[in-house]
Design goal:
Blueprint lengths: L1 H9 L8 H32 L1 H8 L6 H10 L2 H18 L36 H37 L1 H15 L3 H11 L5 H28 L2 H8 L4 H37 L11 H8 L8 H28 L5
Helix pairs in contact: 2-3, 4-13, 5-6, 5-13, 6-7, 6-9, 6-11, 6-13, 7-9, 8-9, 9-11, 10-11, 11-12, 11-13, 12-13
Length: 342
Amino acid sequence: MPDQEQYNESDPLAGAGTGEEEMPSAVENRQFDLGTMEGETLIKAERLADHPETSAADDRVAPRSLWQDAWRDLRTNPIFIISGLLIVFLVLVAIFPSMMTSTNPLTCDLAKSQQGPTSGHPFGFDTQGCDVYARTVYGARASITVGVCATAGAAIVGTVLGGLAGFFGSWTDSLISRVADIFFGIPILLGGLVFLSVIKTKSIWIVVAFIVVLGWPQLARIARGAVITAKQQDYVTAARALGASSQRLMLRHILPNAVAPIIVVATIALGTYIALEATLSYLGVGLKPPTVSWGIDISAASDSFSVAPHMLLFPAGALSITVLAFIMLGDAVRDALDPKLR
């Protein structure tokens, strides 16, 4: 009995009863487990031979990039979905306004001046007897065109100048930074009142050029900081040690990793530029008739708000919704691209 107890304690295959009865069963179980493992290994090897990429994906999960993580977060963000759908709708309205209304926004009838909503004219008429609904639909084209083109221009100029300042440093950084500081000292609204009041010919592209001239320093400062941070990373040092040129370092390694904050700021600035165009038009120095713009309609309706509030509410509401949509989109993109918020 002592020998039997010692045997049971030393052998993990032994059961609770007599070792002579339990040991053969345990050995059989172990042989069965080894056979099962060999079978699973063979099945796995056959599957790997038939579908190598699928099996590799099952065994390990490929690391996701910042953009893949951001897109995964954006797809489940209701703010991004709502604002994105709204922006797509507004862009389609700006490109194809005729699919929303068949009324010419420049066709007016003084006999219907300041009349309220009626059948076929859901927004009523303005002081000149023009259809407010048609003018609200066609006004999206000017406002969105100014916002998108001004944002694209400011982003390109700001990214190029800010990237050069952050990458080369030294006197290049000092020169570009001091020039940006000069433009930063000019309030954009006050600058618009002075600059646009001097120019007699008013068009969409004049307003876009003005916004780009005074809007690029903000994006340049963001680009400069992002480039300085990116060029200090180990992968840039390794690429430089391998003999990569400055152009390759900037375009292949630094810029793709520094563009995220620029996109966030530019998206938020787009809504601000749309509101700026409307403000300049409201003050009389922006777009001029016959251009159809929300700012022009708001300016024309402000004196008659107590008599015909519909003239002001509908274009102002369209402007507010558009600006809000772009700001919400910018906030959603910022949350997705900021690793600190994960």
